[in-house]
Amino acid sequence: MNTSSSHMAIIKSPYRNIWKLSWPQVVMMFFHFAIGFVDVWVAGRLGRNVQACMGIITQAQFFFLVVAMAFANGSVAAISQSAGAGLFRRVQRYVGLGLEAGAVLGIVLFVGGLAARPLLFGVLQIPAGVEDVARYLFNVYLFILPAYYLFIISNAIFRARKQVMCPLYSIILVTTVNTLGDLGFGLGYFGLPNLGYKGLAWATFASVLMGTLFNLLVLARTGALARKSFAPWKWVRCALPYLFKVAWPAGLMQLIWHSAYLLLFSITASLPSGEVVALAGMSAGLRVESLFFLPGFAFNFTAAILVGHYLGAGEPQEAKRFGYRILGLGLVVVSVVTALAWTWLDDIALFVAPDPAVHAVAVSYLYYNLAALPFVVVSMVLGGALSGAGATMYQMGVTGTSSWLIRLPLAWYLGHVFFADAEGIWIAMFISMVIQSMAMLAVYQFAPWQRFAMRGSTRKKTTGNPVH
């Protein structure tokens, strides 16, 4: 089926095709969640020191992966638009460029991470009693950075080419290897040597490495990765700026968002009273809430794919309509899931927070934040659409403004002054998410975000391409 007939088939039954792209990604996100859950569960059985180190190092690792996630956004925008335009040689070259960039950046950050380790440990305030455990985990996680970068970017490449089953198979493999490794080498199950926290670290290493090798093998077997994928420097010099143009706002947005969450923890930890219980309830609530984010992430990915393809095909109005269609389906799915969860809200909170005082705070947190989920979906889906168009600058502006200029000041005022308890912080989170979603909706409806698509990416206008 050629590109034009493929687009027509999607337009004739849009919701069926949106769901066809989305459901494997919903399942994929649950496997991502399972990896973290197993790591935390096993670490908890190895002692509080290991569990504490695992949490700290996992947060630190995120900052090393921001660049990979940013370049993954750039790859999705470039490849989906090129595929939509039917420029398959350019698709192949952007596959090669994305992987080359991932390998180089992974190695650079690995070396930089080793050099910056003493400074980073000082910032993280690693307690003296657990420093050896933290250093070992950190070192192993640094060694896997180059493969991790290739894993993240290769999964983005599959999504951009609408091959959404490949990342699903890949994450199933990673989850299986990680789980068996955690249980086997972390706890000594299956007759394997009990290596404790070292087993946890090497289980992560082995699982990510196997997932990366699987992805590269599939890319090679499908012809997406071949000798022709590695273009001459003349082409790379023209093509790389677009990747960077999309990537740097996406990466900065991630840093802004997560640093705002860290400061929100700080505001909660410094409440006038009940701060310890509030912090514990917030942590428990976040763990539950993260489950309900998973469908939103899947629809975010789908929006990026389809909007990029239709912009590449020279159909900006159809691209915009698909963003709204995906948003509508996402709202239905998340609203149904949230309504079901609301019925058992108290029992769900009890599962993660058995302490009565912490349980009460977790219920309060979930009450406001589950109510905000439809607004979260608006931001996530339309943010994905803007990402597929390469308009990550708008996404960064809306997210940064709502988190730093609305959420954090309001959380401090309501939590520390007006209510003087944690409920004021939860209300601030709800209000800021409503404002953020309305701002994202306004940007999507009225801003000229289609102009961020690659010049010449459509069949109607081919001048100015990096190179076909």
Structural class: mainly alpha
Question: Assembly type of the shown chains?
Answer: single chain
State mean pLDDT (0 to 100 scale): 86
Proportion of beta-strand residues:
under 5%
Order of helices and strands: HHHHHHHHHHHHHHHH
Distance between the termini: 21 Å
List the helices and strands and how they pair.
Elements: H1 3-12, H2 14-45, H3 48-84, H4 88-124, H5 131-143, H6 145-160, H7 165-187, H8 197-221, H9 233-269, H10 275-312, H11 316-343, H12 345-352, H13 356-371, H14 373-388, H15 392-418, H16 422-446
Helix pairs in contact: 1-2, 2-3, 2-7, 2-10, 2-11, 3-4, 3-5, 3-6, 3-9, 3-10, 4-5, 4-6, 5-8, 6-7, 6-8, 7-8, 9-15, 10-11, 10-13, 10-14, 11-14, 12-13, 13-16, 14-16, 15-16
Question: What does this protein look like?
Answer:
- By secondary structure, this protein is an all-alpha fold.
- Helix content is 83%, strand content 0%.
- It has helices at residues 3-12, 14-45, 48-84, 88-124, 131-143, 145-160, 165-187, 197-221, 233-269, 275-312, 316-343, 345-352, 356-371, 373-388, 392-418, 422-446.
- The longest helix has 38 residues, at 275-312.
- The protein is globular and about 60 Å long.
- The model is unreliable at 457-468 (pLDDT under 50).
